[in-house]
Design goal:
The chain has about 290 residues and is an alpha+beta fold. The chain contains seven helices and five strands, in the order αααααβββαββα. It has a five-stranded mixed β-sheet with strand order 1-2-3-4-5.
C-alpha cells in the first residue's frame, strides 16, 4: 500500500511512493493524471476488497494472540466494511442496484475467503508485529523524498527486520514479478535509510493463490534501487518542467479510467496546470518551474 503526493490539482510532485513510481514506469501520462491533475477515478470492487482485507488483517492483531483465529478474522470482515463505508460513502456506489444484496454478499464472501486463506500461510497467533500499516518517509542525500505505507514490519529479538506485504491477487509468473519486488526493495531502502539496517527479509503474501514469496536483500541491491529511483525522479522532474508526459499504450490500458482524455484513444488531456519550459532551456515566454519546487 502507498500514499499519494500533493493535496490539490496543479501542484508539482514533491515525493515518490512505490505506486506512483510504478505509474510513471507504466505510463508517464497516467502519472500526470494522478499526481498533477488528480483526476477522479471510480472505485473498483477488486481494489476495495484489497483495502478491506488489509484492514481486517491489521485489526486482528488488536486482540490477544490466543483469539487470533480464522472465525474471529472472518467476523471482522462485515464490521470493517461498515467502517470503510462510513469513512468513504462513495464506495456504496459499487453495489448500486443490488437491491437484494446478492452481489454484496458474494463480494464479502470473497473477502472472507481471502482472509481465511491467510491462516494457511502464516500463524498470527505466533506473530507480534512491531508495526502495522506503518507510514514511512525518508529523504535521500539527493533531496528526493521517499514515502509509503508498509503493511507489516516484524522485528526479531536479534534485531533482524522483516517487511511483509499482503497481496489479494495471485502470485505473478517469475517473468512478471519485477514490479512487486521493486515495491519491496523500495520499502527496504526507506527502512535502511531511516534505521541504518538492511532488512533481513522481504516477504510477499499472495492471498489469491496461497503463495509466499521471499527475498533477502543485501546493501548492493538497495543501492541499485536508489540509483534507479534517482534516474526516475530526474525523468519526472524533466516532464514536470516541460509538460511533456508521453502516453504509453499497454495491456493495462483496458483498466484505465482516463481513456476519454488520453491521446492513445482519441482523447485530449486537460490543460496542463503548471508553467512549462521548452526542453531546449529557453523559457518561451512561459516561465520556468525551479528545481526547488519539484
Amino acid at each position: 500500500m502507498s500514499t499519494s503526493q500533493g493535496s490539490s490539482a496543479g501542484r508539482p510532485p514533491m515525493s515518490l511512493s512505490p505506486s506512483r513510481a510504478g505509474d510513471f514506469m507504466q505510463c508517464p501520462l497516467l502519472y500526470r493524471f494522478r499526481v498533477i491533475d488528480r483526476l477522479p477515478e471510480k472505485p473498483s470492487e477488486a481494489a476495495t476488497r484489497g483495502t478491506l482485507v488489509h484492514a481486517v488483517l491489521e485489526r486482528l492483531f488488536d486482540v490477544p494472540a490466543v483469539e487470533r483465529t480464522a472465525p474471529r478474522a472472518r467476523a471482522l470482515v462485515p464490521r470493517q466494511w461498515e467502517r470503510l463505508l462510513a469513512d468513504r460513502p462513495e464506495l456504496g456506489e459499487l453495489f448500486a442496484g443490488d437491491a437484494e444484496g446478492e452481489r454484496l454478499a458474494r463480494w464479502l464472501g470473497e473477502a472472507e475467503a481471502l482472509v481465511e486463506r491467510w491462516f494457511s500461510l502464516e500463524d498470527p497467533a505466533r506473530l507480534e508485529p512491531a508495526e502495522r500499516e506503518m507510514f514511512v518517509e525518508a529523504e535521500l542525500e539527493s533531496g528526493l523524498r521517499l514515502r509509503g505505507v508498509i503493511d507489516r514490519v516484524d522485528v526479531a529479538p536479534s534485531g533482524e527486520v522483516r517487511i511483509v506485504d499482503y497481496k489479494t491477487g495471485k502470485a505473478p509468473r517469475p517473468e512478471y514479478s519485477e514490479s512487486a519486488l521493486f515495491q519491496m526493495n523500495f520499502y527496504a531502502l526507506v527502512i535502511w535509510r531511516l534505521r541504518k539496517v538492511v532488512p533481513r527479509r522481504l516477504q510477499l503474501v499472495y492471498l489469491g493463490s496461497g503463495d509466499v514469496l521471499t527475498f533477502d536483500p543485501v546493501q548492493a541491491d538497495l543501492e541499485r534501487v536508489e540509483r534507479k529511483l534517482l534516474a526516475l525522479w530526474e525523468a519526472i522532474r524533466l516532464a514536470t518542467e516541460t509538460g511533456d508526459w508521453r502516453p504509453r499504450r499497454t495491456k493495462l490500458c483496458g483498466w484505465c479510467d482516463h481513456q476519454a482524455v488520453c491521446p492513445e484513444f482519441g482523447g485530449v488531456p486537460p490543460v496542463y496546470p503548471l508553467s512549462v519550459s521548452p526542453a531546449d532551456g529557453s523559457d518561451g515566454g512561459q516561465g520556468r518551474m525551479g528545481p526547488d519546487r519539484v
